[in-house]
């Protein structure tokens, strides 16, 4: 992605969501997504969601895909097939979006976005996305750990860990979860409108042309089914700082902030100092403009964007140092917990409590003393 100047400001209090009285399918979907609210989990449920961590699974997936995977290479094909197979084994419907485009250096190349959907019959989706290609360098084998093997692994790890509550809650639901693994995010020569985000440009244009429902003629298309596109990028280095980059999704950014603060309050984040304002990853600040990434083709078509990308970028960005050594597993686990909690609250997942073991959550017994109720944040 590309980074340029930004404007920084403190987050204001949100206004009420607008009501749209129009009657077409797009407006109904818009009303549904605008009126959608998260269901907060109890402290015990938050601890349960945190305790579901599976670091071995995370490391297995990361180590499998953390190889140079430039579009058009055998490694790229291997990683693509691994992602498809893994999501299929989790019982998600996996669709591929293959297309060809001309690139600098390599000429015509075959790209393929991977779209995995839980419950394809749902009307609306919370969409998580990352890119699975890695950047081409003539001189070195760049593996792109934060860019974006870790974000892809975070999504797969979330689907694996939450597979039971996701299946049982979302099999009949109107709202479900969709993953996009974009291809061709990286420029081959120099970042520009024709040399970057190949997959995102293709998929956004394709979905805009695809009517929903199929025979609908009022202009409603597949993009209208996206509640919000949560784009994960450049994650895994220690102490990331995130900001709200889009006014339209400030309420969902706050939900991420709240997830982090609740997990911290309950002692569920590792190597993390509770009570130090600067320690929070999700800053209570907004920054406007300046980052070009896979969200752009969706954003210009009106899809709400929640961009989870640190500013500044990791110091290893687009260097050989963006490898396994750049990945701080404590940070990654914290982010995994925050993302799981966000998804669980957004999708109203039923979190079963019976399997909580005293050994995995010793704080459970101290909770009444430490925290009799959920913290109400002053900025909420
Ligand atoms: Zn990159």
UniProtKB/TrEMBL annotation:
<keyword id="KW-0862">Zinc</keyword>
<dbReference type="Pfam" id="PF04389">
    <property type="entry name" value="Peptidase_M28"/>
</dbReference>
<feature type="signal peptide">
    <location>
        <begin position="1"/>
        <end position="16"/>
    </location>
</feature>
<keyword id="KW-1015">Disulfide bond</keyword>
<dbReference type="GO" id="GO:0005576">
    <property type="term" value="C:extracellular region"/>
</dbReference>
<comment type="similarity">
    <text>Belongs to the glutaminyl-peptide cyclotransferase family.</text>
</comment>
<feature type="domain" description="Peptidase M28">
    <location>
        <begin position="113"/>
        <end position="342"/>
    </location>
</feature>
<keyword id="KW-0732">Signal</keyword>
<keyword id="KW-0012">Acyltransferase</keyword>
<dbReference type="GO" id="GO:0016603">
    <property type="term" value="F:glutaminyl-peptide cyclotransferase activity"/>
</dbReference>
<keyword id="KW-0479">Metal-binding</keyword>
<protein>
    <recommendedName>
        <fullName>Glutaminyl-peptide cyclotransferase</fullName>
        <ecNumber>2.3.2.5</ecNumber>
    </recommendedName>
</protein>
<keyword id="KW-0964">Secreted</keyword>
<dbReference type="InterPro" id="IPR037457">
    <property type="entry name" value="M28_QC"/>
</dbReference>
<dbReference type="InterPro" id="IPR040234">
    <property type="entry name" value="QC/QCL"/>
</dbReference>
<dbReference type="InterPro" id="IPR007484">
    <property type="entry name" value="Peptidase_M28"/>
</dbReference>
<dbReference type="GO" id="GO:0008270">
    <property type="term" value="F:zinc ion binding"/>
</dbReference>
<comment type="function">
    <text>Acts as a glutaminyl-peptide cyclotransferase. Responsible for the biosynthesis of pyroglutamyl peptides. Might be more efficient in the conversion of tri and tetrapeptides in vitro. Might have a relative preference for substrates containing hydrophobic amino acids in vitro.</text>
</comment>
<keyword id="KW-0808">Transferase</keyword>
């Amino acid at each position: 992605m590309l980074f340029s100047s930004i404007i920084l400001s403190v987050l204001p209090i949100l206004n009420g969501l607008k009501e749209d009285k129009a009657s077409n399918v797009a407006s109904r979907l818009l009303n549904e997504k605008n009126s959608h609210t998260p269901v907060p989990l109890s402290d015990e449920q938050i601890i349960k969601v945190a305790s579901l961590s599976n670091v071995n699974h995370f490391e297995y997936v990361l180590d499998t895909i953390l190889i140079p995977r430039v579009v058009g290479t055998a490694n790229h094909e291997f990683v693509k097939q691994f992602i498809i197979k893994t999501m299929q084994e989790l019982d998600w419907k996996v669709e591929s979006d293959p297309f060809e485009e001309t690139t600098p250096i390599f000429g015509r190349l075959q790209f393929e976005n991977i779209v995995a959907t839980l419950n394809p019959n749902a009307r609306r989706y919370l969409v998580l996305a990352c890119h699975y290609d890695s950047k081409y360098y003539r001189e070195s084998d760049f593996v792109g750990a934060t860019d974006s093997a870790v974000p892809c692994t975070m999504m797969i790890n979330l689907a694996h860990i939450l597979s039971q509550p996701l299946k049982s809650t979302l099999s009949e639901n109107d709202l479900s979860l969709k993953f996009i693994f974009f291809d061709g995010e990286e420029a081959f020569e120099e970042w520009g409108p024709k040399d970057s985000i190949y997959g995102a440009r293709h998929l956004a244009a394709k979905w805009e042309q695809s009517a929903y429902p199929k025979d609908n003629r009022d202009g409603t298309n597949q993009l209208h089914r996206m509640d919000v596109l949560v784009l994960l990028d450049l994650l895994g280095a220690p102490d990331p700082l995130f900001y709200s980059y889009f006014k339209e999704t400030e309420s969902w950014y706050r939900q991420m902030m709240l997830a982090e603060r609740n997990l911290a309050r309950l002692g569920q984040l590792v190597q993390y100092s509770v009570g130090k304002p600067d320690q929070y990853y999700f800053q209570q600040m907004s920054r406007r403009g300046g980052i070009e990434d896979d969200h752009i083709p969706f954003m210009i078509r009106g899809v709400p964007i929640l961009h989870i990308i640190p500013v500044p970028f990791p110091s290893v960005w687009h260097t050989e140092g963006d490898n396994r050594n750049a990945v701080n597993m404590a940070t990654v686990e914290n982010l995994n917990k925050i993302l799981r909690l966000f998804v669980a609250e957004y999708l109203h997942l039923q979190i079963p409590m019976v399997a909580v073991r005293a050994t995995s959550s010793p704080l459970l017994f101290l909770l009444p003393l430490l925290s009799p109720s959920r913290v109400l944040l002053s900025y909420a």
